Amino acid sequence: MTQLADKVILVTGGTSGLGRATVIALAAAGATVVFTGRSEAGAAETLRRLRGSGLQANYFPQDVTNEAGWQEVVAKIIDEHGTCHGLINNAGVSRLQPVDRLTADDVEFLLRVNVEGMFLGIKHTMNVIAAAGGGAIINISALNALRGSPNATAYCLAKAGTTHLARAAALEGAAGKVRVNAVHPGVLFEEGDKPSPGAIALFGAKGAQRFVDHHIETTPLHRLGHPQDIGRAIVFLVSDAAKHVSGVSLVVDGGRMAGEFVHHGVASQG
User: Do 27 and 33 meet the contact criterion of CB atoms below 8 Å apart?
Assistant: First the structure.
């Protein structure tokens, strides 16, 4: 509960899913958490869940593609808390389409939110974190940054950008003791091994269940990930326990990226 008691951490996209779980995990570890996002309703739900666990955090509305907005958020954090020790660059979007249906606008949008948004976060927090004596920046990437996937050409491109952005920033941040890493979640559903509403909307109820069953079958640990799994990994990377960890790509996927997995005599590379 006191692992991060002296840390002030900013989390973008903390109004749903992985971002919300990260906010809760950091607050539970004792951090002072500020989270941002565009959904007022989502922010209210994050705050409600925090209160239900006896925790708290501050929320500021933010569009991560707006540089003036970044300056405003960082200024508010310094004004209210005096410093900042970490940034979780979580806010991101996806557009899944066959390559012949993607448009230049699709690619530009994904790069603007996923890469430019994270770049702006690093630009406007790195010196602040260094002035605090050092700390951590974490870019939330994806398995698609490390391997190709059908219907995800633009998404793979954007997420690869977030990973290499973290590696390059790790070199620049080292002088100020700012560690920068990328985290690569596997397949995540907020309800554990149940299809998400988004998967049901995309594939239909039966198709979504087949999707879930396939990924459970082809994941070595035989479970889908939960946002809390990523939140716990982030707590480690932000903490002093990871003070010599920088420039890495941490995969949290139940073993999917380890290599070809054989189950019931059938080889799978899914």
Answer: yes
Residue 209 lies in a domain: no
155 is catalytic: yes
Instruction: Report long-range pairs for 257-261 (Cβ below 8 Å, ≥24 apart).
Output: 257/143, 257/146, 257/147, 257/184, 257/186, 258/220, 261/218, 261/219, 261/220
* Given 35, 119, 155, 189, the catalytic residue: 155
Query: Is residue 154 domain-resident?
Result: yes
Domain carrying residue 69: 8-188+227-258
Model-wide pTM > 0.85: yes
Number of structural domains (the chain) is 1
User: Can you give the CATH number for the domain in which 158 is found?
Assistant: 3.40.50.720
Q: Quick check: is 76 in a domain?
A: yes
SS3 state of residue 93: coil
Q: Are 89 and 122 in contact (CB under 8 A)?
A: yes
Residue identified by tokens 């605090």 is 132
Quick one: CA dihedral 199, 203, 209, 211, positive or negative?
negative
CA nearest to 2, candidates 35, 22, 32, 47:
32
The pLDDT tens digits of the residues spanning 3-42 come to 899 999 999 999 999 999 999 999 999 999 999 999 999 9
Q: Is residue 201 part of a domain?
A: no
CB under 8 Å to 228, separation ≥6 — which residues? 21, 25
C-alpha span between 18 and 92 (Å, rounded): 11
